[in-house]
Write a structure and sequence with these properties.
Helix content is 25%, strand content 31%. By secondary structure, the protein is α+β, with helices and mostly antiparallel strands. A hairpin with a 7-residue loop joins strand 9 and strand 10. Helix 2 packs antiparallel against helix 3. The relative contact order is 0.28.
């Protein structure tokens, strides 16, 4: 399970159009998301604690402009990221990471780098991406998601919380 920003169909379509023609295998557009905090596999009581805690996590709505190509995972993941992440995004991610840490006793060991994965490259496949046009994303809520074990790269949105 993880907390994420979940784009609407219009943003998904613009992201898919930006990555059209890039090297690598496309990520399914219905799976596009921006992870905020990763909880991993959790029991039902921890899920309830995450949902209850998320109900008290407040934040302001914001616009996130995805305008920078980044390479992750030793260069095999092509993603779009905000070159200047909005403070509201970073604050929300920090609050949710603290919530996950308290509920699961897992501490995130890496620096948070907001991004949306668009392509996955095979071993030895050369990196190639056309320069991106910025994709503005008006963020009004966040979600708790579950990965589907039977279909990697597909997710179920379990709950949603609005931003003010």
């Amino acid at each position: 399970m993880f907390f994420a920003l979940w784009p609407g169909e219009d943003v998904r379509a613009r992201l898919a159009a930006r990555a059209d023609g890039w090297a690598g295998r496309p990520v399914a557009a219905d799976g596009y998301h921006m992870t905020l905090a990763f909880a991993g596999a959790v029991e039902a009581d921890v899920r309830r604690a995450l949902e209850a805690g998320a109900a008290s996590v407040s934040g302001e709505a914001f616009v996130c402009v995805l305008d920078e190509i980044i390479w992750l995972g030793v260069g095999n993941i092509a993603a779009l990221a905000p070159s200047y992440p909005p403070p509201a995004l970073l604050g929300l991610a920090a609050r949710l990471r603290r919530l996950v840490s308290g509920a699961t006793s897992r501490v995130a060991l890496h620096r948070y780098r907001p991004h949306v994965t668009l392509r996955r490259l095979g071993a030895g496949e050369p990196r190639w991406c056309s320069p991106p046009e910025p994709v503005p994303w008006a963020v009004a809520d966040y979600v708790l998601c579950r990965s589907r074990a039977e279909r990697p790269g597909s997710y179920d949105v379990l709950a949603r919380w609005p931003l003010s």
